[in-house]
Inverse folding.
């Protein structure tokens, strides 16, 4: 791939990306969230069309203008989210859309036989006639890979295949990958886990902010060098933060667990500080906060608010204790899309203006306006349907909604995701003001610069545990990434503040 | 207060412009068309339309809430038959006073509502399936107990809710007003109303907002059951009997009224004001077709087309507004 460019409205996702894959090679693609890995893969797979750039396969220029063209060019992608049909058999899934037999009569016998042959060829102990819903996640992954290869793929892309499978299954996956390379298949391997690179990959290309910043031979590089490549961007200066130190603990959580993603998390939050939660996607940060906020039935742990032990079994309990949570996914967990800005702004504080079968419309408008002003939300009117606002303004309404509950503890989960740069700077400045006024803020973020420039302290999580707590003077991208990606040696040199 | 009221009226017309226009066009046509000129715009006929559509309005208020909630309620038609037969049965077979029969009928509607509410709020079974089941169960219960034979009840008190008058206004029209005001208060003047919009608009977000999603669903389905029970009383009273086949397909008329009234089937938005117009459009349509002497078999076809047309125009308007 040479000089590939791809833009989305307002964002340049890929800038002059160059990437090279040899036959029989396993080539890792590395980078932070949003670095452009997925976009690059989607261009290769024909899901996105690049605006500029050329793709050559075996020296020949190919024009990939759709998923079918990519498939014909010998490119197969196993996406992070599995896309098998759970209620069909393995064989049916492998041959979905190209069943053997005539148009009106599928040759089931041949289909299952062919599928079994493929499975056996890679030593996968999977029955072609079993239903996909009965398989483990790892087995499904294998089926996806077999399906991908069955298109006579010469180039196989695996997008974070190990994020949800166990060590034993990972070993089996690696074995399969090695088998494939012996047959000349080139594999592009996307992973956040640096430890896997040395084990399985030949070369590694690092992406950052839509650029390819370097390609290294795995044996000749070090983890530190790769991390430096990944995070070595210049920090922009739109952060506003007056760092503070405080001794007054307002929230203390001990041994939080939810039985799934969150294993044993303890942390504390002090008055007027912003505490960052860093970690990779899937580290259990959002899940921890959901448990604290009472959204996860069956979660365990002790929560103290201002020294007083509290029971939080629902968001209502959390709100009563002065805790507010602005969720991670605006669209899925926050917005009432068909409703107005006003409806969205006031849904948490209905009891302030709806009483005794009367709605105090003046009060409702006043509350809405207060937070429109406070957050500097740009909206033509309070009646505006919220889905017509920009992401940044939607996010401001979301934050305003929760500020209206007058929380002492504000949890912001990815507060600037999908928000343009201008609105980001405004949100940072508002967060700074809130903290200065005595509010205590927890900020979950996958953007390291944001974590580093806004947090008084940073907790780093890895696979459901806290792997470090850093003071703002000790926070560097490297110190965070080490704890977020390499759990093993990170836990030993924590600097507890 | 006066200006606020004016503002409300203005925004009501603005919001429902399309269907109000359609409604007016329809009425104007019937007022000027030769065969209906003398019959349509008489107080007798207008009260007649209102009386016949009272039960649909009861159902449609509940259905509006259910659909805003993102659900559906198919059992209300069967409940009309069930509660009507219960009312008549209490009077005729058990010798109870009419008022007890009516109350029992409404309570029976509430019980079916409870049944629906229980499964819909405590499990993930889709409301379509739950209410499809209860629709069949209710229908079966009626047929088992009546053996398919209507229970005739000709006492004056029994006829009161369906064909009686208070002053010069038919009782069902008064009931219609009461129900509409009650439903409007629930939707527009209580926190519950906001919660219904919130749960229907984004259930997950509602959970984050600390809204008791289960409770909201529960209340709405029980309310709808009670309204279906009340509709059964009025229908039975109008027919002087509990009819095992009354209310057949009534759920579809209610859904049609709600949808024509601009409520989105995907939940989260809609108004009772729109539903009121929807009920009137369907009522006037039925009445007009009768006055015009259109064959009853053809009436179904016309009704279907009008429903589609109304929703299509609404869709066009929204598409334009979205741009």
């Amino acid at each position: 791939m040479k000089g590939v460019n791809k833009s989305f409205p307002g964002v340049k996702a890929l800038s002059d990306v160059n990437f090279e894959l040899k036959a029989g090679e396993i080539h890792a693609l590395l980078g932070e969230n949003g670095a452009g890995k997925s976009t690059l893969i989607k261009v290769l797979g024909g899901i996105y069309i690049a605006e500029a750039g050329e793709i050559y396969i075996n020296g020949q220029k190919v024009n990939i203008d759709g998923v079918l063209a990519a498939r014909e060019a010998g490119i197969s992608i196993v996406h992070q989210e599995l896309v098998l049909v759970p209620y069909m058999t393995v064989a049916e899934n492998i041959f979905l859309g190209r069943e053997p037999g005539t148009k009106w009569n599928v040759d089931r016998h041949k289909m299952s036989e062919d599928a079994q042959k493929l499975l056996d060829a890679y030593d996968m102990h999977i029955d072609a006639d079993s239903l996909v819903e009965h398989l483990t996640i790892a087995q499904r992954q294998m089926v996806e890979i077999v399906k991908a290869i069955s298109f006579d793929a010469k180039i196989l892309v695996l997008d974070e295949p190990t994020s949800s499978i166990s060590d034993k299954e990972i070993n089996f996956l690696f074995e399969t990958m090695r088998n494939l390379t012996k047959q000349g298949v080139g594999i592009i391997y996307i992973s956040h886990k640096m430890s896997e690179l040395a084990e399985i990959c030949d070369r590694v290309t690092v992406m950052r902010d839509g650029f390819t910043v370097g390609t290294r031979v795995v044996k000749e590089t070090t983890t530190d060098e790769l991390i430096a490549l990944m995070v070595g961007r210049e920090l922009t200066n739109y952060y506003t933060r007056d760092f503070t130190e405080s001794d007054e603990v307002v929230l203390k959580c001990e041994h939080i667990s939810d039985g799934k993603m969150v294993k044993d998390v303890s942390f504390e939050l002090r008055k007027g500080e912003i505490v960052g939660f860093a970690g990779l996607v899937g580290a259990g940060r959002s899940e921890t906060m959901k448990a604290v906020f009472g959204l996860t039935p069956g979660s365990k742990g002790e929560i103290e608010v201002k020294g007083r032990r509290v029971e939080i079994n629902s968001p209502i309990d959390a709100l009563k204790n002065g805790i507010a949570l602005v969720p991670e996914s605006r669209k899925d967990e926050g917005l009432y899309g068909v409703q107005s800005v006003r409806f969205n702004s006031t849904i948490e504080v209905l009891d302030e203006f709806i009483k005794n079968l009367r709605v105090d419309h003046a009060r409702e408008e006043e509350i809405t306006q207060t937070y429109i002003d406070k957050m500097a939300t740009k909206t033509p009117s309070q009646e505006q349907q919220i889905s017509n606002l920009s992401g940044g303004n939607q996010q401001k309404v979301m934050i305003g909604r929760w500020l209206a509950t007058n929380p002492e503890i504000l949890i912001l989960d990815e507060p600037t995701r999908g928000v343009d740069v201008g609105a980001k700077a405004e949100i940072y400045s508002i967060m700074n003001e809130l903290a200065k006024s005595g509010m205590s803020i927890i900020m979950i973020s996958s953007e390291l610069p944001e974590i580093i420039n806004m947090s008084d302290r940073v907790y780093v999580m890895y696979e459901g545990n806290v792997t470090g707590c850093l003071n703002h003077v000790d926070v560097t991208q490297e110190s965070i990434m080490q704890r977020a990606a390499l759990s093993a040696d990170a836990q030993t040199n924590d600097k507890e503040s | 207060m006066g200006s606020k009221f004016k503002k409300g009226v203005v925004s009501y017309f603005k919001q429902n412009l399309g269907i109000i226009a359609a409604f007016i066009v329809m009425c104007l046509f019937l007022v000027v068309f030769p065969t209906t000129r003398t019959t349509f715009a008489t107080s007798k006929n207008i009260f007649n339309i209102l009386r016949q559509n009272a039960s649909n309005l009861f159902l449609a208020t509940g259905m509006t809430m259910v659909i805003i909630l993102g659900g559906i309620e198919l059992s209300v038609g069967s409940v009309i038959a069930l509660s009507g037969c219960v009312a008549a049965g209490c009077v005729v077979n058990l010798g109870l006073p009419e008022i007890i029969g009516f109350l029992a009928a409404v309570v029976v509607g509430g019980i079916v509502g409870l049944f629906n509410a229980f499964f819909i709020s405590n499990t993930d079974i889709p409301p379509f399936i739950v209410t499809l089941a209860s629709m069949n169960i209710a229908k079966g219960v009626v047929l088992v107990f009546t053996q398919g034979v209507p229970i005739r009840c000709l006492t004056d008190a029994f006829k009161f809710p369906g064909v009686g008058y208070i002053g010069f206004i038919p009782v069902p029209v008064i009931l219609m007003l009461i129900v509409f005001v009650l439903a409007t208060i629930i939707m527009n003047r209580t926190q519950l109303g906001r919660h219904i919009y919130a749960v229907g608009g984004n259930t997950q977000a509602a959970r984050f907002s600390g809204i008791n999603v289960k409770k909201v669903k529960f209340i709405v389905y029980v309310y709808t059951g009670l309204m279906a029970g009340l509709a059964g009383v009025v229908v039975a009273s109008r027919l002087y009997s509990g009819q095992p086949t009354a209310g057949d397909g009534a759920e579809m008329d209610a859904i049609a009224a709600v949808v024509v009234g601009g409520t989105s089937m995907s939940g989260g938005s809609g108004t009772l004001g729109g539903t009121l117009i929807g009920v009137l459009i369907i009522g006037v349509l039925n009445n007009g077709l009768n006055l015009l002497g259109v064959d009853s078999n053809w009436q179904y076809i016309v009704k279907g087309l009008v429903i589609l047309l109304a929703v299509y125009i609404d869709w066009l308007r929204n598409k334009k507004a979205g741009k």
Chain A touches chain B at residues 293, 295, 314-316, 318-319, 325, 327, 332-339, 343, 347-348, 350-351, 354, 357-359, 361 (CB under 8 Å). Residues 2-231 of chain A form a domain with the Rossmann fold fold (CATH 3.40.50.300).
